[in-house]
Amino acid sequence: MFQNIYAILALGIFCQLSTSTLAVQNITISFFAADLNGCDDLSKCDAFVELLCVTSLSDGRDCGKTKYIQDDNYPVWPEEFTFSNTTGEVLRRWQIKVLDDDVAFNDVIATVVLPFEEFVKATETQRNHKIDLGGRGSLYVTRVNSS
Ligand SMILES: [Ca+2]
Ligand SMILES: [Ca+2]
């Protein structure tokens, strides 16, 4: 019984470390957040998400942005983003920035990094992958579909 559990854990660790080519070639994601806080003095957050893609060819290029949702600490962004791995360019990770829209300067709520492989593994069992925003709430990355 316990040996089986350890074997499964070891397999999981091995898979995370493995850099073998993923079977997943296309993936579509969307975002929602919970418990956002600390944005505005008199109102709730006006949050939006910016995406940078780190790939085999790029250290970080813009690859997506949501519109902001006003005065909502539990925003559900409707935008969906699709990514394709090709033989020429492989997505390694997303740098995800959650910001609060403001009149003068947009404030960064949090910046997090999500490795593509980690996301694929996590969403094999659950549709949403939760990322802690360091006291500023949680970001959920939803796996809309994949092939
Ligand atoms: Ca606000
Ligand atoms: Ca604001």
UniProtKB/TrEMBL annotation:
Superkingdom to which the source organism belongs:
Eukaryota
Q: Which InterPro entries match?
A: C2_dom
Q: Indicate yes or no for the key word Signal.
A: yes
Signal peptide residues are: 1-23
Domain named C2: residues: 1-129
What keywords are annotated for this sequence in UniProt?
Signal
Q: Which CDD domains match?
A: C2
Q: Keyword Heme on this protein?
A: no
User: Which Pfam families does the UniProt entry name for this protein?
Assistant: C2
Its recorded name reads C2 domain-containing protein
Organism listed in the record? Allacma fusca
